[in-house]
Structures are given as C-alpha cells and as structure tokens.
Amino acid sequence: MHPGKFFALPQSPQLYKQVLMIAGCDRYFQIARCLRDEDLRADRQPEHTQIDLEMSFVTEDEVFVAVESLMVAIWRECLGVELKTPFPRLTFREAMLRFGSDKPDVRFGLEFVDTTAIHARSPRNVIADQAKAADGVGVALVIPGGASTSGTQLRKYEDVVKEAGGGGLSFFKVQSEDREKQQVIFPGELLDEFFAKVKAQPGDAVLFTSGPWEATLRALGVLRSQLGQTLLKGKEKQWAFLWVKDFPLFEWDANRKGWAPRHHMFSMPRPEHLEWLERDPGKVLGQLYDLVVDGVELGSGSIRIHRTDVQERVMKVIGLTRDEAYKKFGFLLEAYQYASPPHGGIGIGLDRAVMLLAGRENIRDVMAFPKTASAASLMDGAPSEIDLAALRELRIKLE
C-alpha cells in the first residue's frame, strides 16, 4: 500500500507503552511478541515473547515489588517453590567488583577482592601501571584448596581470561616454598598484606590481574563462571533471584567513536547526574535495572524519561541532531509536552522463564519452530532468496 516505504519500529513496544502512559492509561500489561537484531546464543532467539509492563507514578522499588510478586506466583504455581522476597539488590558497580558480571550467579562463592591499592605498589610495572591508570583495577580471586592444582592447569586459566578480553593472569599457590619467588611481585610485608586482604589460607591458590576496569573484571568473571560450574552440584534449584541496578546510562562505541545508550535512550538519568550529561556522559548513571536469576538475565527495565528537554539532551549525547531526533521520534517528544507522568516498567523474557522452569539450558527447547544459531529455519529453509517479480511489486532494489 506504500511502495518504497517501510515499517521500522525502534524500541517497540517500548515507545508505544510510554505513549499509553502519557495518554492516561496508567497501568499496562501485555504478553508481547518481539523481534531482536542482537547476536544469538543459548538463551536468545531472533524472536521472543515478553511479559511487558509499564506503570505511571512509580519508583524503582514499586516496580521491583510488582515483579517480585509475579515471580513468586509463577514459581509457586509451576514448581511449588516459595521464593523469598525482597530479592537482593546490587548496583552494577558492586556486581562487577564482586562477580565480574552484571548478571551474576551467586549460588557459589568465588567472590573477587579489590586489590588495586596493593597492585599499585608492586615493583612489577606490568602489574602496577595498569592498577594506577585512571580507569584501572587490580582484582584477585581465591580458589580454596587450589594449591593442589597443577601449575599447567593454572596457567591455562590465563588463556580463558585473555580470550575473554583481559590482559593476562598471574597466580600464587599459598605455600611456604613459593614465598621467595612471589616476593618478586609483592616484596616483604606487601605479600603478607596481599594474602591478608584476599583472606587466603595455606593450600589455596590466588589468581590476580590488573587492567582497564570493566574489561578486566568481565574477563575474570568469565573464568569465575567456568570454575563455579563444579561447585553447583546440589544447588541447581536454589533460584537465586536478584536485582542489578544503577547501570551507566552510556557506553563508548569505539567503532563509531561516540557514546551509545547501554540499554536504550529512553531511560531516565539519576536526577543528581543530569549536570554531567554534556560534560562527562561516562559518569552518568541511569535509573536502569535488570532481574537476574542463577546467572540469567530474566528481565530489563527502567524509569523512563518523561521530559522533552531531558530526552533531547540524551539524544544529543548519542549523536542525534535535533532535526534527526524529531524526524525519528517526534511523536514521542511532542507527547512528552502533554503533562507526561513519570513512568517506568520492565520487559521479562517469557521464553527464558519457561526454559528455567523446565530445567533446560537452551531456549530452543521451549520454542515452537526455533531458529539455529545462524538465525536459519531448517524446517522451511528460510531465509531464502526472493523472486525478482515480488521485489518489483514492492518497489525494492537489492544491491
């Protein structure tokens, strides 16, 4: 009906449910079918079903209470399991510093210890310089009883960290015969301070690394997740729900050399951080939150922007001119001006929830007609090339 034109619904149903809030529909709940263009993996498909909700005049805490009540009801009805509320709440920074992940599995230990100050005093420049950098961190992970692990195996852990984007990995076995060579890195009392800081006991192994804050923590977090799999026996059904909140609003996109929204551009900055939007976008935290269970991100949401001036400023940070912003999102920017209420919500992955409830590890097991990891449908051979006559009818040219 409109040759040469296309439906492109960015962040839909996100923008539609925001408009509903502005229009006076103060509570919204829908089972929404969605498409995604992100990389596929075991818990992600090109399309998914979302438990989608939005509410006017709510705080983060009120969203949390509503979602926790829903999870309690689902787990009770489906599994006969009584979940304890409120779920623990971690900031993004705390989750990264303790677990190296913004969706941590907390059913096993292996928590990190921040050893930046000790690393910075090491005579080994490769350790000290990275810890002293503006965005640097030093971090350690204790493996209880790990001194019995062979040096060859411990060195293989470095390959895991490097493949995950880290700069490298060192290790100590906590045993008296190794102290002399360990003091090359942490001489004299610095070594005792290091072992005391990480609370290492004789017979343990300590893994440690330095580097850029997020990349280093994430890389060690990948190793932590691998090591933790052997510790999960008997804990598979603990259902460790938690919230991760206070994410950075923006992240640096090295490819386009500019700022990009970490979640999406319609999330409200923390009020006290509005002054940093133009001056230092990397410092701005958003009213963003994720629902996590057993290392799986089950849902993601935020308190939304409800002011035209704030939305324009956020769009400017990510490189949209005012004309571009109004061309793409004018309907929303204009709607904000009609007494838009503060509002917030979340989208919860229904397919992921079913996957967890069913005890499966791959989301394809609980979806009808799933796609392969390369987004292909083996049953009907899609996607396939289209007939040229159909392209002409649609007024579409292919390069």
Strand order of the largest sheet: 1-2-13-12-11-8-3
As a percent range, the share of strand residues is 15-25%
- Given as residue ranges, the uncertain stretches (5+ residues, pLDDT < 50) are none
- The helix content, as a percent range, equals 25-40%
DSSP, total strands: 13
How many helical elements?
13
Give the integer mean of the pLDDT values. Answer: 92
Largest sheet: 7 strands, mixed
Oligomer: single chain
CATH topology of the largest domain: BirA Bifunctional Protein, domain 2
Give the total of domains: 2
| N→C terminal distance | 23 Å
Shape: globular
The CATH class of the largest domain is identified as Alpha Beta
User: Which structural class do you get from the secondary structure elements?
Assistant: alpha+beta
List the secondary-structure elements in sequence, H or E: HEEHEHEHHEHEHHEHEEEEEHHEHH
Radius of gyration of CA atoms, rounded to a whole number:
24 Å
Q: What CATH architecture label of the largest domain applies?
A: 2-Layer Sandwich
Report on this model:
With about 400 residues, the chain is α+β, with helices and mostly antiparallel strands. It has helices spanning about 15-25, 60-80, 90-100, 115-120, 125-130, 150-165, 180, 190-200, 215-230, 310-315, 320-335, 350-355, 390-395; strands at about 25-35, 45-55, 90, 110-115, 135-145, 170-175, 205-210, 240-245, 250-255, 260, 290-295, 295-305, 345-350. It folds into two domains: about 15-95 and about 235-365, BirA Bifunctional Protein, domain 2 (2-Layer Sandwich), CATH 3.30.930.10; about 110-230, Gyrase A, domain 2, CATH 3.30.1360. The protein contains 13 helices and 13 strands. A seven-stranded mixed sheet has the order 1-2-13-12-11-8-3, with helices on both faces. Strand 11 (about 290-295) and strand 12 (about 295-305) form a beta hairpin. It is globular, with a radius of gyration of 24 Å.
